[in-house]
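Weekly puzzle thread! Below is a chain. First person to post its structure in C-alpha cell form gets bragging rights.
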Amino acid sequence: MDFTTIQSFASLGFGHITAPGALDHILFLVALAAIYRWNEWRQALVVITAFTVGHSITLAVAVLRPGSLPDPGIVEFLIPLTILATGVENIFTRGVVERRIHAGRRAMLAGVFGLVHGAGFAGYLTELFSGSIAAPLLGFNIGIEFGQALVIAFAIAVLGVIDRGLRVVVVRYPMSQPSSGFRLRVASVSFVVCVMGALWAVERAPW
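Winning reply:
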C-alpha cells in the first residue's frame, strides 16, 4: 500500500469537501446535522459514515466501469434534490427524532443519497487515477470523512449555541414545552435548507 498516495489523496478529499465549490455537499451535511444536539454526535457520525459508504461505492463504480454513471448534468440536478428531501424529512419527523426510533432509516437515507453525491465527486476524481485504485480511493475517502466530521462538528456546535438561546426563551415563557425551542430550530434550519435546495434544483434543471 502506497502511503504517500494515500496521504496525497486524503488531502485532496479534505480540500474537496471543505472548499467553497462544495457548498452543496456542505449544505447536505448541515441538513443531516440539523436534527442532532451536541451530545448526539455519535448518532450523527454513524449517519455521516453511511453517507461516506454510499459515495465510496459510486466512486469505485466510476473508476472500475467508466461511463457507467448518469450524465453529470443529471447528477448536478439530483444533488440539490437530496438536500431538499433531507430538509423535508427533518421538518416532518422532528418529533419522531427525539424518540430516536428511525436512526437506521436515516442512515439508510444518507447512504442512498451518498450514491448520488459520489457521482458528483467522480468527475473530479477519476481524472486523477492512474494504476491501482485502492490507495487513491482509501486516501480520498479518509480525507472526505475527516472533512465531513469537521463540518458536522462545526454545524452541531453552532446549532447548539442556537439551542441554548432558545432555551432562555423557553425559561422566560413557562407555557412553552421544553422541546419546543429545539423543534423550532430544526424546522427553521430545515426550511432554509429546503429553499436553497429547491433554488439550486431549479437552476440546474436539465430541461
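Puzzle host: Confirmed. Bonus trivia for everyone else. The chain has one domain: 3-204.
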